[in-house]
């Protein structure tokens, strides 16, 4: 193993020019994830750049919902960087894309935790910039982790190229305008939209598997597709996905507060349903 003091246990997955391994620390037996990113030529520089960025951000931030990178090792050949090795927390669980939750109270609980983690990230000066179902892992102990900080940036940053996932990208990302907290608000809203409806929110870029230019103004609210979604939650999602950043909730604290209000209303309605007296049988 190229990372001293650790032994390879299994291969967990493949990505763009990268492999993620499960490794264990030789002296303690504790498990970690190790990402290996290889540079075969100049066309791979962006993958190296994203991996370096991921380490920079996730080695600095602190919150239980944010996966941390712990150590990094550069391997060079003939003075050129050939491989990056990044040691990360090992997160056991499934992404929301792999296992989409259907129960509305569970969805509320999940995204309150996501909003709390993102609020902490923002308070530390960063925007995630790629929130989507595949970057949210539900862990086996009932918690969650936000992963993949490769596209993260400082609040207010303007990127030199378009970065983001078409089904979840905010308009300011697609148009290379300043990115801030409200960019993550949009990404989050589009993610909740997909979780509750199974459909992609129509962003300004063509979605996966289509070349059609999506029109956000044609988006239907989630409760049109899923009658179990409270109208208040549907309204929140549509507010998060407004085209103009200034029309969205200002930050994740506002999003979390509205989710909490919806959760309490649902709880009261459920309790009222349980406590309601049986109907008059007549006579």
Describe this structure in words.
The chain contains seven helices and ten strands. The longest helix is centred in the C-terminal third of the chain and has 24 residues, at 252-275. The chain has 283 residues and is of the alpha+beta class. Helix 2 (104-123) runs antiparallel to helix 4, helix 2 runs antiparallel to helix 7 (252-275) and helix 4 crosses helix 6 (231-240). A hairpin with a 2-residue loop joins strand 1 and strand 2 (18-25). 35% of the residues are buried.
Question: TL;DR of this structure?
Answer:
With 283 residues, the chain is α+β, with helices and mostly antiparallel strands. It has 2 domains: 6-89, Phosphorylase Kinase, domain 1 (2-Layer Sandwich); 93-269, Transferase(Phosphotransferase), domain 1, CATH 1.10.510.10.
